[in-house]
Amino acid sequence: MLELFTVFFKAGILTVGGGLAIIPVLEPEIISREWLATEEMAEIVAVAMAMPGAFAVNVSTFVGFRFGGVTGALVATAGLLAPALMVMVAIALCFKTFIKNRWVVAALNGVRPAVLGLIAAFVASLAHLFFLRQNAGESPWWQVPNLATIALFAALFALDWKFKPHPVALIGISMAAGALLFGVFKMPV
């Protein structure tokens, strides 16, 4: 359990920007320790995105639970939240001085492109995992796109771009469409 706490504590320290920025930091740690396979990690990410609450907390809770049950979930979540709690308490104690420091503001502005890069790398990793069939036999991955998933993504992206539905509605629509495409019509995943 100490290793679990340490991995999530390190992810909590190294993750700047919240949410999705945790995945590029956390995924190599989890995969290298063989706590989860890449596909399982992707499934946990999908479930965590669909659940209410903070994404990073959801991921830590799910991974911790898979590793060590309820105790693992509590340990992983505590490990993830401890660095942020310590930093936020320190900032709260000296907020007025902290927020007016031009070096602090400049440093935080410099972090933004790094966070965007981390999120873009994660999105590219998910696109590779979700848009290409995993059980394609002998064919190289680039020859076997999962057209149903790509079409669903394009339709949901266009719906979100044009009409800006509430995220819960968009998740509900995507779950219903997924159930139809991959459950009723049995499109290959």
Descriptive account of the structure:
- The model has no long low-confidence stretch (mean pLDDT 86).
- Helices cover 78% and strands 0% of the residues.
- It has 189 residues and is an all-alpha fold.
- It folds into two domains: 2-111, no CATH class; 132-189, no CATH class.
- It has helices at residues 2-14, 22-32, 38-50, 55-93, 95-100, 102-131, 147-163, 167-184.
Strand and helix map with partners:
Elements: H1 2-14, H2 22-32, H3 38-50, H4 55-93, H5 95-100, H6 102-131, H7 147-163, H8 167-184
Q: Largest beta sheet, briefly?
A: none
Distance between the termini: 35 Å
Tell me, briefly, the overall form: globular
Rounded mean pLDDT score: 86
- The total domain count is 2
Figure out the total of helices.
8
Give the SSE string: HHHHHHHH
| Beta strand % | under 5%
Structural class: mainly alpha
DSSP summary, beta strand count: 0
**Fraction of residues in helix:** over 70%
Rg computed from alpha carbons, rounded to a whole number of angstroms? 19 Å
Q: Which parts are unreliable, with pLDDT below 50 for 5 consecutive residues or more? A: none
Concise synopsis of the structure shown:
With 189 residues, the chain is mostly helical.
Name the features.
189 residues; mainly alpha; 8 helices
